[in-house]
Amino acid sequence: MDYKYINNMLSEMDKDLSSKGMTRRDAMKLAGISGASFMMGGSNLEAMEKDQLPLKKSGVDAKIVIVGGGLAGMSTAARLTLNLKNPDITVIEPNKLSVSYQPGQTLVAAGIWDIEDIKYNRDDFVPEGTKIIEDKVIDFDPNNNQVTTAKGQVIDYDYLIVATGLQLDFERLEGLEHAGRAYSTGDNSKLHKAIGEDTGICSIYTAEGATKTWEQMQKYIEKAKNAKDGKKVQFLFTHPSTPIKCGGAPKKIMYLTNARLKEAGARDNAELTFYPNGGAMFGVPEYHDAIYEQFKREGFKWHYRTNLIGVEKENKIAIFDSKWQEKGPFDPIMKDFEVVSKHEKIRVPYDFLHITPDAVAPREVAESEIGDGGFVPVNKETLQHVKFMNVFAIGDIAQVPMGKTGGSVRKQYKVLVDNLIAKMEGKKLPSKYAGYTVCPLITDIGTVMLAEFDWSVKPTPSFPLDPLVERWVFWLMKVYALKPMTMYGMLSGKA
């Protein structure tokens, strides 16, 4: 564990706390999390490492291949090495920055962090004894227990873990057909060339895009500062029709743009509008209600059931498919009126347009028997493939309800490792993932509503505080604590 980094983080947090007249221990007591040792520093961090060491390692042998070396894949590899006496693990991952801290992209986009604050080298987090193949899998052959890479390597396995993550499908948008598909990290120059430099279009969903979002945001905040004659600068934010990585992120960047506008004294000259494909602010009713009240408080506008389908960059027009339902003819058999679905294409002018792209499975996954046309179908509790019993999936690529956040992976990778080792030993799979998902919903610079929930579709707070209230102490967790817990906790297989 990198104690130098964590000590620096704790020092910065203490400065923030002292400005509020509090100590770190006071803040933890306020949150009811005095036992959260990763925020308490020093010897407690060492104790956390010792407490997480496994009591007994399995002696079972098998060749395990993990496709994808991001947070999900590398954390799983690390935990397997802690729980197997003779681990034989190969991770196939082409991107040298695959473990970069994706949740920090929102903070980069608001000028709170720099891009260097979220960049991490894959090879610094490879568990001892784990083999890295710097290549990309282009074909899955689960019937013969093989994968094939772009460089032509055919790799056999006894057990396969799919942790590829998802792709960002910008190319489906009219006007961005040449953008292609992107990953959060890596070379996305094709995407940014297609977007252009002076179009007002941005997206926090790539690391480079987060930096460009901050550049664009500052430009249009300055325009709002200088706006005259009551003309408002139009800031548009979208949420697509697919499940996405961190469902709260499209709203986070909207809240942060709002905060920066207020900070600049330009909020009255700006109009912020949210265009979600769905019919609610959030899938959990209690959080929907809280966000709805926040939107009203901040003077945001919104249009439900409105999905972005294209852009006219030259004219700065966003094109949406707007959907609604109308009462149709009376059905004498059902003794009720039919409901008729309607939709129309609408054109909306913008100055600043933040795009949350469709999230899709990589083609090599979707077009194989592993993916069966999309994300990898698994038992939502055990994470075992529904057809191939020696295949598991984790993270964004796993076809489970909800569960596309780093906090979800923190629960999933422990379940997967327990179940994989049990499978290797010929035992019944013992662990179940309950759908835990967490979204630190940034509502301002300095406040966060910590949305935690599972498949019960109810708030499941970890702390003895009202989960519907925005709190400064959760901002401290988001800005100071979650990254070290991820980078030096999860990626060591211990958090």
UniProtKB/TrEMBL annotation:
Gene Ontology biological process terms in this record: sulfide oxidation, using sulfide:quinone oxidoreductase
Pfam family, one: Pyr_redox_2
Xref: InterPro entries: FAD/NAD-bd_sf, FAD/NAD-binding_dom, Sulphide_quinone_reductase
SUPFAM superfamilies: FAD/NAD(P)-binding domain
Domain FAD/NAD(P)-binding: 63-182
Record GO terms (molecular function): FAD binding; sulfide:quinone oxidoreductase activity
Stated name of the protein: Sulfide:quinone oxidoreductase
Organism listed in the record: Sulfurimonas gotlandica (strain DSM 19862 / JCM 16533 / GD1)
Gene name linked to the record: sqr4
